[in-house]
Input
Amino acid sequence: PTSSIIILASDDTRSWKQVHQFGVALRDTRDPHFLEFRDKLFVYTGTWSSGDRSLSPSEYDLNLHLGYAAWSEDGETWHSPVMLEGTFGHYIWRANTFAGRAFLCGRRKLEFEVRPRGEGRRVESLMLESEDGLIWRKRAVFQEIEGDETAFQFETDGKIVAIGRRGRANAQLLQARPPYDRWERHDLGRYIGGPLLVRWGNRYVVGGRKTVGGNGPKTSMYWLVGHQLHEFAELPSGGDTSYPGFIELSPTKAVMSWYSSHKTDENGKPITAIYMAELEIAE
Output
């Protein structure tokens, strides 16, 4: 319940200053994500109900999860915490926009089962829809079972391309056209934790945590070509690591961020920190 979301700003991606910080009383706030929508910058966060103490993972109750937001029109003055109507019982995650509406990934227990606590196989991933970024309703179901963190993009005709984590199993490529009632799913052959999906020029970039190769967890980046992933970068990372962020600067240059705990202090204790990298495509 003492956790909080800190929003940092930079003009050059090297020097950063804190512009806002917020928490939610009696709740564990985590997993923040940005969304630019209707001339506002939103920061969405999921929150576990914790009361006045820290919970063990065995006590997490997905049915009591609730989404909150901070938003700003200028990046300096912020409004928060704002409860997101329609998200109770949903673990919210990445969001996107299309045709003047916002869409948010939220996962929940099938029929809001009371037991078990935590997250199991009987979890579905939904796409929630909003006209103002604050009030949400169900639009479609991404995954009918084993739902998890999902990142999605809209193509110009409204088609959705998404990367869905499946717990510790292989991630899936998800595709659907309006009205999003029929989905194609393709096994990507590897686990991806905290997936990212963005466009870079005319290509799709996928990022997230991998656990292959015998070197422990690493944050990696891939090209998505058809239904296959082609790794192009393994970032300095390890331990608890993932949640890549990505900003396209040009069709050949970009900057990205990720968190990792691969470094230690003088006492050998892992240091969790945010890292950044400049990416360039060599023609």
Summary: The first strand starts at residue 5 and ends at 9. The radius of gyration is 18 Å.
